[in-house]
Recover the amino acids of this structure.
């Protein structure tokens, strides 16, 4: 059986071999007959062959070009995840605790590291941030805030109403000496549950929604620390955060410090497109200009008041956006030489405000502590420059002009001390103001402190003790025209922001009434009446409204040109979408 199978296999193999040889011979014969034998005839049709080769080549080339051409229609260069953004800021970072932020560097860092219950959005309006909802009862005195679910600090610990209550109470504790101004006077706070907290106000307060825009700090780290020692706690240099970024490292640099931040994976709005954000601090605007020209930083917001920064690098672009920040001349009404209203009125007539403002380039004049964008009111007429009127007023209260010097009854010259920081126009305006006061007969002294104030924090060492007769300073006027923090007598203390120590029973009533009524026409009338008293009592004189001039590398994506900013720090409202890296993406159909 096996032998028969082997014989059959060999027969099949032999047949296949013969068939293969026959096919091979047939192929050779076919090639010789139809190709080789006819090759000599190709010369008669070589033109047709060449035309066909060219036609096929053209078709192939067209297909390749079309593929490349149409590739651009469905692919584009776009910003992608990754990269670092470096911003140059002015001033030292003495503390990373947001409740003590006073320098521009500290405020910028606070905005990147910490979130609040509410925050200003790209439209310039307050919206929910850590808060999921905010509601007020019919009495307008009880406000209920519910936090978002699953909020966490960068160290993974839950962020709850314990943190909200702790932050609220610390801000209101005078021993803590925070730099936060709020509308929390006589306000009580109560925890409803882990996610809900209730604020009870002594009276209705229409702008309390704005007061909820304050940074929250972690109770699980600081609640056991004495309020007076919070500033000195290790948290001030090694914070955990709730904002879009978290601290990675701090490195000394030639000009200041370099702060490295990484994206915060626990950020409630989702991770940022940027992998990291870097702050480089500088002690002067000239150093920032140099860094921009060298492209050592991506951008800076701290040249807004520099009239003509020497930006020579063509890759640096600018965008300008109005803010609700303003600069004022605050007159200390408790100063012996300014306590009399008549003297302050004399200064209002004698100071040439237009001459002070003559070098303003990026900013616009500001006459009142209320902006038309905040509320629609009629503004009173400003008193015109009248030096003769100024001298008449000074003489009416017993001063005489002798050898161009204002002398009191004891033969002493009337002296005034001006305090400010070396930020933007302020130092220049202070010197110019001193010259005008000297021309009026005053003995004027100017104390200009460095913006980082290496000798001591300017806010705590100069402003809190009111160590000045005149203060030139920039303030955040907010989204609402509530003037309570700056001009109500209850805020005329070391813990308050009434920098003029201004006290007036009539004004107190007007401010309280304006902030407690939800009747818009009545509120408008109250503020119009306030401005009349403000001009008459002269606790302050307006200088300019601050425009943010942002210098940035054109290859980066920053905040939108259409963003409306209440303060320069609101530029970070859409920092999630800032980017520096680009890649190829397919277009959306």
């Amino acid at each position: 059986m096996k032998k028969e199978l082997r014989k059959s296999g060999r027969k099949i193999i032999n047949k296949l071999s013969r068939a293969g040889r026959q096919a091979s011979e047939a192929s050779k014969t076919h090639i010789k007959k139809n190709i080789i034998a006819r090759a000599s005839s190709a010369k008669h049709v070589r033109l047709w062959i060449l035309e066909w080769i060219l036609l096929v080549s053209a078709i192939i080339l067209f297909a390749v070009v079309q593929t490349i051409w149409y590739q651009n229609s469905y692919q584009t260069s776009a910003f992608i995840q990754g990269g670092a953004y470096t911003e140059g800021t002015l001033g030292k970072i003495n503390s990373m605790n947001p409740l003590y932020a006073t320098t521009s560097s500290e405020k910028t860092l606070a905005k990147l590291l910490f979130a609040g219950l509410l925050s200003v959005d790209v439209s310039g309006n307050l919206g929910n941030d850590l808060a999921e909802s905010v509601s007020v009862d019919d009495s307008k005195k009880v406000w209920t805030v519910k936090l978002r679910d699953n909020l966490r600090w960068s160290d993974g610990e839950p962020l709850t109403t314990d943190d909200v209550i702790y932050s609220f109470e610390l801000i209101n504790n005078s021993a803590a000496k925070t730099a936060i101004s709020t509308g929390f006077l006589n306000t009580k706070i109560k925890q409803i549950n882990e996610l809900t907290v209730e604020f009870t106000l002594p009276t209705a307060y229409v702008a309390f929604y704005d007061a909820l825009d304050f940074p929250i700090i972690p109770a699980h780290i600081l609640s056991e620390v004495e309020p007076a020692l919070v500033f000195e706690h290790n948290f001030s240099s090694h914070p955990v955060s709730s904002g879009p970024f978290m601290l990675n490292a701090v490195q000394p640099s030639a000009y200041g410090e370099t702060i490295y931040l990484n994206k915060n994976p626990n950020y409630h709005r989702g991770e940022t497109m940027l992998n990291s954000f870097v702050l480089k601090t500088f002690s002067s605007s000239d150093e920032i200009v140099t860094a921009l020209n060298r492209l050592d930083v991506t951008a800076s917001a701290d040249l807004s008041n520099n009239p003509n920064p020497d930006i020579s690098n063509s890759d640096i672009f600018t965008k300008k956006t109005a803010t609700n920040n303003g600069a004022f001349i605050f007159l200390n009404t408790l100063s012996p030489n300014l306590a009399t209203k008549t003297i302050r009125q004399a200064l209002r007539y004698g100071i040439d405000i237009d001459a002070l403002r003559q070098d303003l380039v990026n900013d616009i004049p500001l006459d009142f502590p209320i902006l038309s964008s905040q509320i629609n009111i009629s503004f009173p007429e400003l008193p015109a420059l009248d030096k003769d009127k100024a001298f008449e007023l000074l003489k009416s209260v017993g001063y005489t002009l002798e050898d161009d010097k204002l002398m009191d009854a004891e033969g002493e010259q009337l002296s005034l001390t001006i305090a400010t920081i070396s930020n933007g126009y302020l130092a220049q305006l202070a010197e110019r103001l001193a010259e005008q006061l000297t021309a009026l007969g005053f003995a004027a002294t100017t104390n200009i402190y460095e913006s980082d104030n290496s000798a001591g924090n300017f806010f705590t060492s100069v402003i809190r003790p009111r160590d000045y007769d005149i203060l030139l300073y920039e303030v955040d006027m907010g989204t609402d025209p509530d003037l309570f923090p700056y001009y109500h007598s209850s805020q005329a203390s070391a813990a308050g922001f009434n920098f003029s120590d201004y006290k007036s029973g009539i004004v107190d009533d007007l401010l309280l009434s304006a902030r407690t009524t939800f009747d818009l026409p009545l509120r408008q009338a109250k503020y119009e009446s306030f401005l009349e008293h403000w001009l008459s009592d002269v606790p302050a004189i307006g200088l300019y409204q601050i425009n943010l001039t942002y210098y940035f590398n054109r290859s980066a994506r920053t905040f939108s040109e259409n963003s409306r900013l209440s303060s320069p720090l609101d530029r970070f409202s859409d920092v999630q979408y800032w980017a520096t890296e680009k890649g190829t993406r397919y277009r959306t159909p």
User: Anything to note?
Assistant: The longest strand covers residues 316-331. The chain has a mean pLDDT of 87.
